[in-house]
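Predict both folds.
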Amino acid sequence: MSSLTPTGANLPAQRQSSGRRVLVSSVSSDSHTWNLVFLQLLLEEMGHEVVNIGACVPDELLISECRRHNPDMVVVSSVNGHGFLDGRRMIGRLRDEADLADLPVVIGGKLGIRGGEGGGYGAELMAAGFTAVFEDGEGVADFRRYLESPKPVAIVGGAAA
């Protein structure tokens, strides 16, 4: 093993830290990657093990990677403004899988294309099956608090539900 390879990096079934194993992804239409890199670094800084499966992730790939890596949580990020549409479809597909139905899945970022006006996607995304929703413009403080909680409560658009 080279000195640049993290210990246990090729052992997805074995926990590498005391934090959660978090799978980071985008929605299928979102090709942005810096948001995913930021999330990965933030989560690792907080002590979590991160599997970043990248941008433009089809629903089927997300499902198979959840089974492969057995994460404690999935974090979905969207920057292109289609997080609401793609996320709603994606969470429905994931919740249809009996073995993944209870997996905590959160979504955040730019969820719609209306900018600051309109918004309000949180309640509908929660009803569709997301565990928490973090809408654009709220910063990372609510997300950090959510992750730091031993038993996270549902968050909709920055407010605890």
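Second protein follows, with its predicted structure tokens after the sequence.
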Amino acid sequence: MRFFLVFIFLLSGFFNCVLAQEQNIKEVDSLYKEDQFYAGATYNVLGKQPSDVSQSGFSLGFHLGYIKDIPINKRRNIALGLGLGYSANSFNQNIRINKVNDVVTYTLLEDSDYTKNKFSSHLIEVPFEFRWRTSTPTEYSFWRIYTGFKVGYMIAHSVKYKGDLGNIKFTDIEDFNDFQYGLTLSVGYNTWNLYMYYGLNPIFSEGATMNDENLDMNAVKIGLMFYFL
């Protein structure tokens, strides 16, 4: 939690400096574009959890990328956005994911003493947004509401456990869905923007079951997003 807050503080300070420099050197541009780079941090939650599944610790997500701003009206305060980004996410929880002889099993860590149990993913993402804002060619602090859809392709993943069963790590669990997609929303003023992502498909494939119950958990991410040119 402390690392998350320090990261947010440093990130906001950096973007305030960038925005201040832009305001000093940017000339009036009637064909201006906004918010073409983004970076943010989120708290990650598992939605649709099976019974007895719970999360522990602080599950983090870090996101950055570029979005091409495409204004669609004369005032240029309404736009579309299409981009490319990277996302790293972790989920701390109490599901023991194990693999023996190419067979993956899922069990609850009920009697195990452990200090770490999480799965992580790294994704290349393509965001698409519909953008409304109160910006003008000379106004650099403005309200924004950006809503959209994001598709991610998982380029790497890992499962880590550290406890009385040993130190265990897997990077070849086939049950992860390679494609992750969901709805996004960014709402805020100037530097600070509340960001939300709701996954529309499960993190795991249909073959992932625990106690004869499908692991249909999806990703829900809530945090802050920072935009700059």
